[in-house]
DNA sequence: CGAATTTGACCGGCGC
DNA sequence: GCGCCGGTCAAATTCG
């Protein structure tokens, strides 16, 4: 228990593709030389530093590229798995076929079962689109049941979970879009009120959002998005979980555009990074090579500890 | 003063 | 048909 605090828990996994040591190098050398030698020499070293810097930039750029490729692979695998899972699920429920049991309950409430249409708790915009296409098709098949007045966008339902301070009573989540609250209700299945929002980013945007604290964990805000934005995302290139972009390619552009972002974008960036971290974590835990390496490292550590 | 939020009333779907 | 419930409306209120 408490022994963990004193233990060295570093595992020495040989998995660090990202060597972060370089930033400290240059200034150190620069300082050394400038204090001991004259201006001319300093310039020489500066040139040297510049070339080193260029090298580092190239290296970082290629690493960035690698990461992008890795991420693409991870995403592809994720889609494939998700698709597979979907197939299995639809096969599992005989007869009814989970195509949203037409007469059951009130309209769009399957999402109340913790984001069913998306399958589980994901924040992925792209994979949702993937799923939504099929979900939409199914709904179109069933559209004879009820006239969908605005558009079949209504079928697009996604659930996103946001961490929230449990002391914070405002049911607002920062997803980059501009929302206008039009109602609030206390529902039966959850003591905390549910807030209803419309997208006010564009006047005719049909997207709606419901935000409610999770009944199980009040520190989590459950946002349910319905519909598709008919405008560009908050920063014109990326949207939130419901943004329309079909092929939301995730870019990890860490080399370019350093420090020219606006403060508001930092939030979205943070969310994006959080999402990426989740994605990477889940893909790592699903990676047998990684888990094997992890297990080996842990057992190695344990052996070492038991020896000492 | 205009925009945003709040909140009670109302509406429509669904189960009994 | 009635009552329950989720969703929406719109007048009142608050805020910047």
TrEMBL record:
<dbReference type="GO" id="GO:0042742">
    <property type="term" value="P:defense response to bacterium"/>
</dbReference>
<dbReference type="GO" id="GO:0005634">
    <property type="term" value="C:nucleus"/>
</dbReference>
<feature type="compositionally biased region" description="Polar residues">
    <location>
        <begin position="240"/>
        <end position="250"/>
    </location>
</feature>
<keyword id="KW-0539">Nucleus</keyword>
<keyword id="KW-0804">Transcription</keyword>
<dbReference type="GO" id="GO:0031347">
    <property type="term" value="P:regulation of defense response"/>
</dbReference>
<feature type="region of interest" description="Disordered">
    <location>
        <begin position="228"/>
        <end position="250"/>
    </location>
</feature>
<feature type="compositionally biased region" description="Basic and acidic residues">
    <location>
        <begin position="90"/>
        <end position="103"/>
    </location>
</feature>
<keyword id="KW-0805">Transcription regulation</keyword>
<feature type="domain" description="WRKY">
    <location>
        <begin position="175"/>
        <end position="234"/>
    </location>
</feature>
<dbReference type="InterPro" id="IPR044810">
    <property type="entry name" value="WRKY_plant"/>
</dbReference>
<dbReference type="GO" id="GO:0003700">
    <property type="term" value="F:DNA-binding transcription factor activity"/>
</dbReference>
<feature type="region of interest" description="Disordered">
    <location>
        <begin position="90"/>
        <end position="139"/>
    </location>
</feature>
<dbReference type="InterPro" id="IPR003657">
    <property type="entry name" value="WRKY_dom"/>
</dbReference>
<dbReference type="GO" id="GO:0050832">
    <property type="term" value="P:defense response to fungus"/>
</dbReference>
<protein>
    <recommendedName>
        <fullName>WRKY domain-containing protein</fullName>
    </recommendedName>
</protein>
<dbReference type="GO" id="GO:0009751">
    <property type="term" value="P:response to salicylic acid"/>
</dbReference>
<dbReference type="GO" id="GO:0002237">
    <property type="term" value="P:response to molecule of bacterial origin"/>
</dbReference>
<dbReference type="Pfam" id="PF03106">
    <property type="entry name" value="WRKY"/>
</dbReference>
<keyword id="KW-0238">DNA-binding</keyword>
<dbReference type="GO" id="GO:0043565">
    <property type="term" value="F:sequence-specific DNA binding"/>
</dbReference>
<dbReference type="InterPro" id="IPR036576">
    <property type="entry name" value="WRKY_dom_sf"/>
</dbReference>
